[in-house]
Design a protein that fits this description.
The protein is of the alpha/beta class. 53% of the residues lie in helices and 9% in strands. It is built from 13 helices and 5 strands. It is globular.
């Protein structure tokens, strides 16, 4: 009897660890759909569809929270494009600067969407350093390609717009707007539209409280229990975030629509 209990416990443990490993891989370990290494690693064929590169961190990679790049790819009016997802979990502006040639320029893009800086804010990267990195990324893409370029403002971190963290983030968004003006490229007001949604909420927002266990719990609800990202956010009492950092489908749809209108020339 005791042996059977031990075997059952071991099997249960194996199942739990297997499920946890699957969730960790799906949310944190796997690459985005159609990353640069696959789409551009061996060069692009002359008859390839025009490439649209979305570059950034986890909010662009879309394996934890809304996949706004995938939503753009799925739109019938975008079938003439190939969408390349150059989002990498945890990246800062310095990381993107290091890979700009391999992950953006090498794709010979027709259009480039850049959403980078949330991790710079969270990691306390000095504002001047962020400005230098972002400017170098934009200048490199502009000088080495003929792509249209758009900089996206950063989504709020947490849902309290008056928090010290979001007041700090606003200074990074100012840099994004100034960089777009200097380089004469487009600026997409992601933060502004998401903030308008958050201002309409009825209940007071919960304070910012991001942690890896919270992110893992959100991923577990989605990948193991089959809940939508909107349901995950709602279960945590949040309007737009699944874990105070990554957006649900409602928030992701705002980016998708802004990007789609930009691609259409509106």
């Amino acid at each position: 009897m005791k042996k059977r209990i031990i075997i059952a416990a071991c099997l249960l443990l194996v199942g739990v660890l297997g499920a946890a490993g699957t969730v960790a891989y799906l949310a944190f370990g796997r690459s985005a759909a159609n990353p640069p290494a696959e789409a551009c690693g061996d060069g692009r064929k002359p008859d390839a569809r025009p490439a649209v590169v979305a570059a950034g961190s986890s909010s662009t990679q879309g394996t934890l929270g809304a996949d706004w790049v995938g939503a753009l790819r799925d739109r019938p009016d975008h079938r003439r494009y190939e969408f390349v997802n150059a989002g990498v979990n945890g990246d800062t502006s310095a990381d993107l600067r290091r890979r700009v040639d391999t992950d953006i320029v090498a794709c010979r893009p027709a259009a480039v969407l850049i959403l980078i800086g949330g991790n710079d804010v969270r990691d306390h990267v000095p504002l001047d350093q962020y400005r230098d990195n972002l400017g170098a990324i934009v200048d490199r893409v502009a000088s080495r390609t003929s792509a249209r370029i758009a900089l996206l403002s950063l989504p709020p971190l947490g849902e309290d717009l008056d928090s010290e963290l979001n007041r700090k983030l606003s200074r990074y968004n100012t840099v994004i707007a100034q960089t777009a003006t200097r380089a004469r490229i487009d600026y997409l007001p992601v933060h502004e539209q998401l903030a308008d949604i958050l201002r309409q909420r009825v209940n007071d927002p919960a304070p910012y409280d991001f942690s890896f266990p919270l992110a893992f719990g959100a991923a577990t609800q989605h990948y193991l229990l089959g809940r939508s990202w909107d349901e995950v956010a709602s279960n945590g009492g949040r309007e737009l975030h699944v874990d105070h950092v990554h957006l649900n489908d409602h928030g992701g749809a705002v980016i998708t629509e802004l990007a789609a209108r930009w691609l259409a020339g509106e």
